[in-house]
Design brief:
The protein is an alpha+beta fold. Helix 13 runs parallel beside helix 14. A six-stranded mixed sheet has the order 7-6-5-8-9-10, sandwiched between helices. 36% of the residues lie in helices and 20% in strands. It folds into three domains: 113 residues, no CATH class; 195 residues, no CATH class; 182 residues, 3-Layer(aba) Sandwich (Rossmann fold). The longest helix has 17 residues.
């Protein structure tokens, strides 16, 4: 334990050498936190636990003049933010902190110091970024109304039913067709359930979104194309008699400075259901992260909806960060939810400021509740499908618990040619809105579809893991009118197929009126399958066809790269959480073993956090 404590202390000292003066205070807390934690590291959960311990110490100790324990309520992706929280009391004492205003000023100074300077246009923007990293859970306002479902404590969350697909015979179903998906909402939502001490409902677990939450090390395109495709073939870890195929798509990376101008409209839900520490306050801080990154050529507008919709700030340049942030800060929650009216208004604002050279996008931030005006899925779908033809995309950010309309939010993003993410912490907001800003906001390929044709000589049957609501009919692949998924700059997509080898035999249902045979190319080929891809350039009407054969090169599972093994561990975890009929020999212990050995390079701690969540889900499942 001493070695682990020393390692964590060194990480803290590297972030802020002044913390060495706090060592006697830190060591007992670290000893307490490390008990029973074999994989403790400086990930978001560990930082939060340490922050909570420090907060309890402050609350139980002698109060400082003008110091509020709430000042500890900060979180972020870097250990430096924790270091700031640890040093705030000494900073306040050092500067005499006799008032709340002084404490707040010092907090902004400290947060600005720890922020990544590359995110700021100029030193004067530092306080704005500091504001974006404030408390994730400020006190709940006492005077604002809530929806009856919230005040009564009812859980009205909604998830679409997932119908798990089984194995399909290659002879009967030679083609597997699906649309790509880059959403990650399910992983963050599952994390929220587990952190609250509850296993997620099976329909909240979309396995493809669990897999695609993590960054993988894939090479981008070497030509002028928007993406590159890579494959790995090995054994399935939950059924060694079967194979596991990993298909990875890596989008072309574009630096934020090189992105075309952004015409962004924030459409913010300020209805009564958003009156919760994990909703509107977190939403505001997430939006401030976007604002902090805006450039002179970018434009931002803010509109809101509750009982009615209205414009808070008309489209204004990215240089007016302070005015935009101040307008955002004035928002309060209350009333019913006229979501459809808000969507209409947001599209009007985006259209008025439309930039034919740039990225025109609405960012809808909500818990998904629509109870005034058109709220049925059919009406909303028709509205969004009509509006997307104008070249304006829709990104959906979900917040909060107890009232999440997950199925509706996913549907809106899908029909609006955008993506859907769930924001449960500021760390998640930073991941989606700062680290992956290009992928979240800038589309490089539209209507991306994949169609796999398997060689029946080598493969008897197959099963696509996840993507249940992204399946397409075989004829949809060549139909350019059929909507599919979008790929953002720098985004990657991973899909896993479980395959049953054929062993050189033909199989399938015997037919009365025709014979199904394999041709000479299948018999003599070393190809296990061929991948066909269709995509459109943004704004184009005609798709481009690509084709890539996959050789029958089987790797031993233990020799496969870290990314392949880690993705397989995530998929196995999803099968367990869903209690899948196809989980085979999967177990939480096996998931942990593979994930720990395939952790690899994990600078942001996402894989370490996954290991913690698997351990937590194992305990809850017992």
């Amino acid at each position: 334990m001493k070695d682990r404590i020393r390692t964590i202390l060194e990480e803290l000292y590297e972030a802020d050498p002044a913390l060495k003066d706090q060592e006697k205070r830190l060591i007992p807390l670290l000893e307490k936190l490390l008990k029973g934690r074999a994989d403790a590291s400086m990930d978001s959960r560990f930082r939060e636990d340490l922050r909570r311990e420090l907060l309890e110490k402050e609350e139980s100790g002698t109060p400082r003049s003008g110091f509020r324990p709430a000042l500890f309520l900060i979180s972020g992706a870097a250990a430096a933010l924790l270091a700031v929280a640890l040093t705030l009391p000494s900073l306040i004492d050092r500067f005499g902190g006799g008032s709340e205003e002084t404490a707040l000023e010092i907090r902004s100074m400290a947060m600005a110091k720890s922020a990544d300077a590359s995110l700021m246009e100029s030193p004067e923007e530092a306080p704005l970024f500091a504001m974006a990293m404030e408390s994730e859970a400020p006190p709940v306002p006492q005077s604002r109304s809530r929806d009856r479902s919230e005040t009564a404590g009812f859980n009205t969350e909604e998830y679409s039913r997932i119908y798990e697909k089984g194995f399909l015979s290659v002879m009967d179903n030679p083609l597997s067709t699906f649309s790509i998906d880059v959403d990650t909402a399910s992983y963050a939502n599952v994390r929220r359930f587990l952190n609250s001490g509850t296993l997620p409902p099976p329909d909240a677990v979309r396995i493809e979104e669990l897999i695609n939450y993590f960054p993988y090390h894939m090479e981008g395109p070497k030509d002028n194309g928007p993406f590159a495709v890579q494959t790995v073939l090995s054994q399935s870890p939950w059924n060694r008699d079967n194979l596991l195929l990993k298909i990875g798509i890596q989008g072309r990376k574009i630096s934020f400075e090189e992105l075309p101008p952004n015409n962004l409209v924030f459409l913010l839900d300020v209805s009564g259901s958003m009156d919760d520490p994990g909703k509107l306050p977190l939403l505001k801080n997430a939006m401030k992260m976007i604002i902090a990154n805006m450039r002179r050529e970018d434009s931002i507008a803010i509109c809101v909806y509750a009982g009615a919709a209205g414009t808070v700030i008309a489209p204004t340049g990215g240089v007016n960060k302070k005015a935009i942030a101040e307008a955002l800060e004035q928002l309060e929650a209350g009333g019913s939810t006229a979501g459809a009216e808000g969507i209409e208004l947001a599209y009007e604002l985006a259209q008025k400021n439309f930039d034919s050279r740039g990225n025109n996008r609405i960012i809808l931030a909500t818990d998904g509740d629509f109870n005034v005006g058109p709220s049925s899925e059919g009406e909303l779908v028709r509205m969004i499908e009509e509006k997307r033809m104008s070249g304006i995309y829709l990104t959906v950010l979900g917040f909060g618990s107890g009232n999440i309309k997950d199925s509706k939010m996913e549907m809106l993003a899908d029909k609006g040619k955008g993506n859907y993410a769930y924001i449960d912490t500021l760390m998640e907001a930073r991941k989606v809105l700062v680290e992956q800003m290009g992928g979240t906001f800038f589309t490089i390929a539209e209507d991306v579809k994949l169609q796999l044709e398997f060689n029946p000589v080598l493969i008897d049957s197959y099963r696509l893991i996840g993507y249940e609501n992204r399946m397409l009919a075989r004829e949809d692949f060549d139909d350019d009118q059929k909507d599919a998924g979008e790929l953002g700059a720098g985004h990657s997509v991973t899909a896993l197929y479980e395959l049953i080898p054929a062993g050189g035999r033909e199989s399938g249902t015997a037919l009365k009126y025709q014979n199904t045979t394999v041709n000479a190319q299948a018999l003599g080929s070393g190809e296990i399958l061929t991948i066909k891809m269709r995509y459109k350039q943004p704004g184009a009407e005609q798709s481009i066809l690509l084709e890539q054969p996959v050789e029958n090169r089987l790797m031993d599972f233990d020799s496969a790269d870290d990314d392949f093994r880690f993705a397989s561990a995530v998929a196995m975890w999803g099968l367990l959480l869903r209690d899948s009929d196809y989980r085979g020999g999967a177990s939480f212990d096996k998931v942990l073993e593979i994930a720990r050995n395939a952790r690899g390079d994990d600078p942001e701690g996402y894989r370490n956090e996954f290991i913690r969540l698997v351990s937590l889900s194992r305990e809850l499942a017992e």
